[in-house]
TrEMBL record:
Keywords: Membrane, Transmembrane, Transmembrane helix. It comes from the Eukaryota. The lineage of its organism: Eukaryota, Viridiplantae, Streptophyta, Embryophyta, Tracheophyta. The chain crosses the membrane at residues 73-96, 108-130. This is Ribosomal protein L18ae family.
């Protein structure tokens, strides 16, 4: 796509790829095709670029839906934690275990569950302390 030839001072040439081509797996499929069409238009008239058929679409890394009904483990645990608070502690364990490195979209929900677990723990501590004194 965005390959260019870089000529060095000693007369040798090097084929260089743009940063977008190096990380093409992270880009959504529509952006790949737009980039290919844009490159074809810029490079000159009369040159055609092969655009893949819709049936051969490659999914990007984050095009897969999240688990737990599409909202992710973190948000699912956060919402269900109001009924079963131990799920907040489960999500906190996942958060501190860097579970979100598998999919960064999980980070916000896991952090919200960790904050809810901390608030629930403080509430329990206050209830226990004031009950005994």
């Amino acid at each position: 796509m965005g390959e260019t030839v870089k000529v060095r001072g000693d007369g040798s040439a090097e084929l260089v790829k743009s940063m977008a081509d190096k990380h093409v797996g992270l880009v959504r499929p529509a952006a790949k095709y737009y980039s290919a069409i844009k490159d074809a238009m810029v490079s000159g008239k009369g040159r055609y670029t092969l655009v893949k058929d819709v049936d051969e679409v490659e999914n990007g890394v984050y095009d897969k839906p999240l688990p737990c009904f599409g909202c992710g483990v973190g948000w699912f645990s956060f919402l269900l934690g109001f009924v079963l608070p131990f799920l907040w502690y489960y999500a906190t364990f996942l958060y501190f275990g860097n579970y979100y490195r598998k999919d960064p979209r999980e980070r916000a929900g896991l952090a919200a569950s960790a904050i809810a677990a901390m608030g629930f723990s403080l509430m329990l501590l206050v209830i226990v302390v004031f009950r005994w004194f």
